Amino acid sequence: MAQTREAAANTAVQRLFTKNDPTDIKSEPELSSISKKFIYNDINKQIRLSTAKQELLTLVVLTANNTPEDIPAHVEGALRAGATPEQVHESIFHCTPYVALPKVKTALERFDQVMEMLKIKPCAPAGTTTDQTRHEAGLAVQRAIFGAENIDKMNASAPADQKHINDYLSANCFGDYYTRKVLDVKERELITFTAIVTLGGCEPQAKAHAAANISVGNSRQDLLDALTIALPYIGYPRTLNGLSCVNAIAPSK
Question: How far is residue 208's CA from residue 30's CA, in Å, rounded to a whole number?
């Protein structure tokens, strides 16, 4: 006999969270019930990414939204779903050049609290570049993802007074972050797209990174999964804007 929406949602919640159900709102049981059944039944049934990746992308959304109160529960959920502490750490860490340091700092503080509570040792440094190599390494990643001709043309045509921004994109955004260990470029691009869509108002960048995801081997379904995971936390307007970006790059067949 098929489970009801409520039973299926409860099963999913019990599998992920030992104590704190992120949808539990003590003073609003009706909203709690609607949210739990929507996220942990309706959305779960639609997602093709693994549960671990779903939890990692949820942490990206919470970081970009600057809503850290639910991060500890989803850190534990990601770990219980099979993600490693390093994968959880890097998923949050990678958001930095897109959502900015203060949000990531707050999210990582909550992550560290969970690691301490579970007596898990801190993650080892994951950087692979030096001050001397970061620009060249980042530029190589940019060229591989977006096409050498496109990146070289963008850099060559930049006005003199903004060339430092282009240099920062290569050395910092890509050199300091995309070259790190633990996550591959496909995982990092999906995180980037999810973070940008969560921010809202960044449709040119969301469209560019939708194309980048396809370029590195992610699928339209992966992008739709990311949007579907984000939807309960970012609402329909930002989700539909992100969907328009995906459809412009990888339309439904």
Answer: 39
CA distance 41 to 46: 9
| DSSP code of residue 161 | G
Rounded to 5 degrees, what angle do the CA atoms 206, 239, 90 make? 60
Structure tokens at 108: 């990582």
Distance separating alpha carbons of residues 107 and 112, to the nearest angstrom: 9
pTM for this structure? 0.97
Alpha carbon of residue 93 to chain centroid: 10
Spell out the alpha helix ranges (H) of the chain: 5-16, 29-37, 44-46, 51-65, 71-80, 85-93, 96-99, 101-117, 134-146, 148-157, 163-168, 185-199, 203-216, 220-249
pLDDT in tens, 150-164: 999 999 999 999 999
pLDDT in tens, 170-193: 999 999 999 999 999 999 999 999
- Give the C-alpha distances (Å, rounded to integers) separating 93 from 59, 101, 122, 223: 11, 9, 14, 20
